[in-house]
């Protein structure tokens, strides 16, 4: 799996699980890897996809909903191509 695909999968896990810690557990990786993927994406594309709520997890922003839908579509296409 290449770095961009990995980054996308971590972002989707965070959206699905609602927290960085839960996403890390679901993907069997460190929480810092999930956080890094999110921060790198948000910085590179100058957009906020999650609002971090201390002790309450993540909330997807309106922009984040669109981004996550696009990421999900791209990963579906990658998975179809790889099969």
A few lines on this structure:
By secondary structure, this protein is mainly α. 70% of the residues lie in helices and 10% in strands.
List the keywords:
83 residues; 4 helices; single chain; globular; 2 strands
Shape: globular
Tell me the strand percentage band.
Answer: 5-15%
Q: Rg, please?
A: 12 Å
What is the residue-averaged pLDDT?
94
- N- to C-terminal distance: 14 Å
What is the chain-wise order of helices and strands? HHHEEH
Low-confidence stretches: none
* Helix/strand class: mainly alpha
Please, how many helices? 4
Q: Provide the spatial order of strands within the biggest beta sheet.
A: 1-2
The share of residues in helices is 55-70%
Main sheet attributes: strand count, strand direction, barrel closure: 2 strands, antiparallel
Number of strands: 2
Notes on the protein architecture:
It is a single chain. By secondary structure, the chain is mainly alpha-helical. Helix content is about 70%, strand content about 10%. It contains four helices and two strands, in the order H-H-H-E-E-H. The protein has a two-stranded antiparallel sheet. A hairpin with a 3-residue loop joins strand 1 (about 50-55) and strand 2. Helix 1 crosses helix 2, helix 1 packs across helix 4 (about 60-80) and helix 2 (about 20-25) crosses helix 3 (about 30-45). The radius of gyration is 12 Å and the shape is globular. The mean pLDDT is about 95.
What is the topological layout?
Elements: H1 3-17, H2 20-27, H3 31-44, E1 50-53, E2 57-60, H4 62-82
Antiparallel strand pairs: 1-2
Helix pairs in contact: 1-2, 1-3, 1-4, 2-3
């Amino acid at each position: 799996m290449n770095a961009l695909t990995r980054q996308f999968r971590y972002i989707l896990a965070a959206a699905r699980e609602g927290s960085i810690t839960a996403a890390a557990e679901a993907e069997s990786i460190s929480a810092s890897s999930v956080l890094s993927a999110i921060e790198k994406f948000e910085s590179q594309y100058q957009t906020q996809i999650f609002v971090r709520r201390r002790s309450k997890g993540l909330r997807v922003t309106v922009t984040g909903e669109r981004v996550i839908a696009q990421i999900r579509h791209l990963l579906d296409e990658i998975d179809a191509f790889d099969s």
